[in-house]
Design brief:
elongated; FAS1_dom_sf; FAS1 domain-containing protein
Length: 226
């Protein structure tokens, strides 16, 4: 009888909490709670049904101070990033499918990958380290990194990183830019340093033979995400 009473008390402590209250009760989610409050998202997460991919305090600690300061100074950007972690509806881990995309509150999509060999689940490449923490109005899955919304396609990302200037030139030379803006892809992108390991003869051969260069570049691309 005493055992039943203890169980009943424990269940009572877990019941009756919305998503925000559930996050507040977790000491490892204090940063997320603070940012949700600052961005004015607490009311939205307290009503309706949602799934939250929740970065823990350790995840936020990985961000640079410059990034944190920028988010603090730009509440709209902060809200956009936080909304990118929230999906309408209650999505349990058993509901997730490999290569599935789900639409977030900021209108952008999250890609889910499931790896059968080690049972790992990732969202936009960020590992889910705890699943199915339920609240009265949804479910929380804890992720080990903050998920930043994409700011462009693959070509935009390559163009915005000086380490890939040689790759960008090669892609543009053979007309692959449009192909890299399409369906979900994975690119194993050689840096400028990687190209520098080619001999002068090898590099010149690539530049002199566009079809061969295109073949080499497409060998670095697969037609799905990893």
């Amino acid at each position: 009888m005493l055992w039943l009473l203890v169980v009943a008390v424990a269940v009572g402590q877990c019941a009756g909490k919305d998503l925000v209250q559930t996050l507040v009760s977790d000491p490892q989610e204090s940063t997320l709670v603070s940012l949700v409050t600052k961005a004015g998202l607490a009311p939205a997460l307290s009503t309706g049904t949602h799934t939250v991919f929740a970065p823990n305090d350790a995840a936020f600690a990985k961000l640079s101070q410059a990034t944190l300061d920028s988010l603090d100074a730009h509440p709209d950007d902060l809200a956009n990033i936080l909304k990118y972690h929230v999906v309408t509806g209650s999505v349990m881990s058993a509901d997730l499918r490999n290569e599935e995309t789900v639409t977030t509150l900021n209108g952008q999509k999250l890609r889910v990958n499931i790896y059968s060999h080690n049972h790992a689940v990732t969202v936009e490449g960020k590992k889910v380290i705890e699943t199915d923490r339920t609240a009265d109005n949804g479910v929380i899955h804890v992720v080990e990194d903050v998920i930043m919304p994409p700011s462009g396609d693959i070509v935009d990302i390559v163009a915005g990183d000086s380490r890939f200037s040689t790759l960008l030139t090669a892609v543009q030379k053979v007309g692959l830019a449009d192909a890299l803006k399409g369906d979900p892809l994975t690119v194993f992108a050689p840096t400028n340093d990687a190209f520098s390991h080619l001999s002068g003869t090898e590099l010149q051969r690539l530049l002199d033979h566009p079809e061969y260069l295109k073949e080499v570049l497409t060998y670095h691309v697969i037609d799905h995400t990893l």
